[in-house]
Write a structure and sequence with these properties.
The complex is a heterodimer of chains A (210) and B (407). Chain A is mainly alpha-helical and 210 residues long. Chain A has nine helices and four strands, in the order H-H-H-H-E-E-H-H-E-E-H-H-H. In chain A, helix 7 crosses helix 8. The model of chain A has no long low-confidence stretch (mean pLDDT 74). Helix content of chain B is 4%, strand content 69%. In chain B, the strands form two sheets. Chain B has a 22-stranded antiparallel beta barrel. Classes of the chains: A mainly alpha (210), B mainly beta (407). Chains A and B meet through helix 1, helix 2, helix 4, strand 1 and helix 5 of A and strand 1, strand 2, strand 3, strand 4 and strand 7 of B.
């Protein structure tokens, strides 16, 4: 590629940044006056100002991408309690659509019936989803309690080490165990939060001191 | 109840002199009784009483300064294998909120507050500041930090060494462009648990097109944790099409044994259609292809329909189908509501058929009804009762009743 073309390509982003810098800064508008507005009203302004209608039917799944911006204007209409009632478990703004967890905590509507049985599937669909509201301890507390109460194998397909001969692990088990752990290591942590849980196994002894 | 008493008292002391001239005080209270069944407590029926309270006090006529707080106390009324009656408290937030403390340049919050503007969200006992328009219009810097509050099992379970700190540099400019670089560190019991850097860019080059990209890097484990690329197209104002690529690596606290293992990258490609004919009719559908490594994948479909054929009547139905790695799920959810005057009735049913590869198959059914009545603008009551038939319960009856007061 000619040097001049390379220079042009390199300068383009810089020129774009300078052009944007010269433009007036935009701050998300105060929306308090529009609290009671209907979606149709929102669209009339949004489309004309380059902001797409965003409180649509999938906003529950989409909202974090907007709320993470420093200049997000959620607070123009919503109190922090609106966020925390879902993210940290609360029920001030009572909603009859919200069910309860096994510990009597209100759960967002996104949690389907018998969520205890379904959560392993849901946790696979984007492994980070649970983390946005729950600490890792939330998983291990329940799993460890359950193991203590019900006993292994905790309704999970038995996955204890299989030995081909005394002291020699079955290669098939090693392979499937490794593949499953790499796919969803978080599920291992849910029941085995301590490193001793794995480093006791011969194959992980080298990781024990790290 | 573990509460950062010093911060609470500081804020109350700071706010008290101003209360005499307060322009407005708003309070919302919800007094509730909840009943539920816990499979870990021998399926015993349990009950809780709870009191939620949120108070907003405007400290000046213009609403520039506010003192706001939200918390709850709760008591389990039954003795179970896991717990016995006791009072527990949660203070969700209590802070002094200053908007335009320096006009067009500074917003701040001091006290316990939720921060979501950086690489790691959380509730901190400390503060948050947002310096805006720093020389260049739209250029700003945020910073936050303090003790990190976490809630679990009805109470505040954070330790004295839990902390969160971070900040961001951002720039809002033409074409609704937002560029932000954020950084955050999380400490658990004084140990560095997580450290992230995130870069986010969103822009709307055309009225009908918006783009968003986000990448975050896990500094403590020297690998990226999340990459998101999204395009939204709205050829007509009633239609939004969304395409997205998303990939992540699961992240673990730095001291976790699991942080040393290699993991397979999770990837997802999805497409969504939102059709909103007017405020009374909405339709959405989405498809996601999920990839767990080179040999395993899953497909997830969602469709939903929202109808408001009469002003007082709402009907909402959604269907989900998942197949592939880890198992299958078919679920239908429906609820409806009808309002007449000061009263409303609601009802819904959920059905799920799940086929988990590693464990169990089964179905779950939930039927629920709800009702609300507003005695006055400031006083209302709401009730929900549900029956569950699931893998764990031949039946589980649970719900809540709440008396809500707004002043």
């Amino acid at each position: 590629m000619p040097r001049s073309a390379t220079r042009t390509i390199a300068l383009l982003p810089m020129a774009l940044l300078l052009a944007l810098a010269a433009a007036p800064g935009a701050r998300a508008d105060d929306h308090k006056a529009y609290r009671e507005a209907k979606p149709d009203d929102c669209r009339e302004c949004h489309r004309g100002s380059g902001v797409m209608d965003n409180h649509g039917p999938t906003f529950l799944q989409e909202h974090r991408k907007l709320a993470q911006k420093s200049s997000a204007n959620c607070a123009a209409c919503h109190e922090q309690s609106f966020c925390l009632d879902c993210h940290t478990g609360g029920n001030l703004e009572t909603d009859a659509k919200k069910g309860l967890s096994r510990r009597g905590e209100p759960m967002p509507y996104t949690h389907e019936p018998d969520y205890v049985s379904i959560h392993a599937l849901k946790a696979r669909d984007d492994p980070q989803t649970c983390n946005r509201c729950h600490e890792p301890k939330f998983c291990s507390d329940c799993h460890v309690r359950w193991n203590a109460k019900v006993g292994l194998p905790f309704s999970v397909r038995p996955h204890a080490p299989v030995y081909a001969s005394p002291g020699v692990l079955d290669p098939t088990w090693v392979s499937s165990h490794r593949a499953e752990a790499r796919r969803n290591l978080r599920s291992c942590q849910a029941c085995h939060p301590n490193k001793a849980d794995c480093s006791n196994f011969a194959c992980h002894s080298s990781l024990g001191g790290r | 109840m573990r509460t950062p008493r010093l911060i609470v008292l500081t804020i109350i002391a700071a706010a008290l002199p101003s209360l005499a001239g307060a322009a407005e005080v708003q309070a919302t209270s919800s007094t509730q009784y909840l009943w539920y069944t816990d499979p870990l407590s021998d399926h015993k029926d349990q009950g809780d009483v709870a009191e939620y309270l949120r108070v907003n006090v405007s400290l000046d006529q213009g609403g520039q300064y506010r003192a706001v707080g939200y918390g709850r106390v709760i008591r389990q009324t039954t003795t179970t294998a896991e717990s016995s009656p006791d009072w527990f408290g949660r203070l969700y937030y209590l802070f002094l909120d200053g908007r335009d403390v320096i006009k067009d340049h500074l917003d701040l919050r001091v006290g316990r507050t939720y921060v979501n503007q950086a690489a790691i969200p959380g509730v901190v006992d400390g503060g948050f500041v947002d310096f805006r328009n720093l020389g260049i219009a739209g250029l700003g810097v945020t910073a936050f930090g303090g003790h990190r509050a976490t809630f679990d099992d009805k109470e505040d379970v954070s330790k004295s060494g839990d902390a969160l700190a971070g900040g961001s540099v951002y720039w809002n400019t033409a074409l609704q462009t937002h560029l932000e670089l954020s950084y955050a560190r999380k400490y658990t019991d004084k140990d560095l648990a997580q450290e992230f850097v995130a870069l986010q860019l969103s822009t709307a080059p055309l009225d009908m097109l918006s783009l968003l990209g986000r990448a975050s890097y896990d500094v403590s484990q020297s690998r990226y944790s999340e990459l998101l690329l999204q395009a939204n197209v709205s050829p007509w104002k009633q239609v939004i099409l969304r395409g997205e690529y998303y990939a992540n690596n699961p992240t673990f606290d730095k001291y976790s044994f699991y942080s040393f293992f290699g993991v397979t990258q999770y990837q997802q490609v999805s497409a969504t259609l939102e059709l909103q004919l007017d405020s009374r009719y909405r339709l959405h559908g989405s498809y996601a292809y999920e990839k767990f490594d080179s040999t395993t994948d899953a497909n997830v479909f969602d469709v939903g329909l929202y109808l408001r054929p009469l002003e007082a009547l709402v009907l909402d139905i959604a269907y989900e189908n998942r197949s592939g790695y880890a198992g299958g799920l078919n679920g239908i959810r429906f609820h409806g509501s009808y309002r007449f005057g000061k009263a409303a009735i609601l009802a819904g049913t959920d059905y799920a058929d799940f086929r988990r590869d590693e464990a169990r198959d089964g179905t779950a059914k939930r039927y629920w009804v709800g009702a609300s009545y507003d005695f006055a603008r400031f006083l209302g009551v709401i009730l929900r009762a549900e029956e569950n038939y699931s893998f764990y319960f031949s039946h589980a009856y649970q719900g809540f009743v709440a008396l809500n007061v707004h002043i």
